[in-house]
Specification:
single chain, 6 helices, 125 residues, mainly alpha
Length: 125
């Protein structure tokens, strides 16, 4: 996540309506896991050097997450672990290759493999 310096000489670029809509879409799917508001997310992307890439990063997680949970009735703890696994996959290719995710006592090895395959099958990152 490459951020523009926050000093007064830096210029933040407002997001286009299309990018704002994309942020709203992924945020609506994942907001329960965030400790920031939609507006905070938008401002963060406005400070980002490459908001398109960053938004695509979160969209990929959101697509895999919603694809996985759509047919299940999962507890909040299990949904948190599903999100955590997808976030870990997004930040570490080694974790994707080896399924090395800590604190996943709610997920079976079969579910982890399904998540891994779903994550690898959605978009490119």
């Amino acid at each position: 996540m490459k951020k523009i310096p926050t000093d007064k000489t830096s210029v933040w670029k407002p997001l286009s309506p299309e990018l704002r809509q994309r942020v709203e879409n992924y945020y609506s799917q994942l907001h329960v896991f965030f400790d920031f508001t939609l507006e905070d997310a938008i401002v963060g992307f406005e400070k980002d050097l490459d908001p398109e890439w960053e938004i695509a990063f979160w969209e990929k997680i959101a697509r895999a997450y919603t694809g996985f949970i759509q047919d299940g009735n999962f507890t909040l703890k299990k949904r948190q672990q599903i999100f955590g696994v997808l976030f870990a996959f997004s930040t570490s290719k080694a974790l994707v290759a080896n399924n090395l995710i800590p604190n996943i006592d709610e997920l079976t090895s079969f579910e982890l493999e399904m998540l891994r395959n779903l994550y690898l099958g959605v978009g490119s990152n």
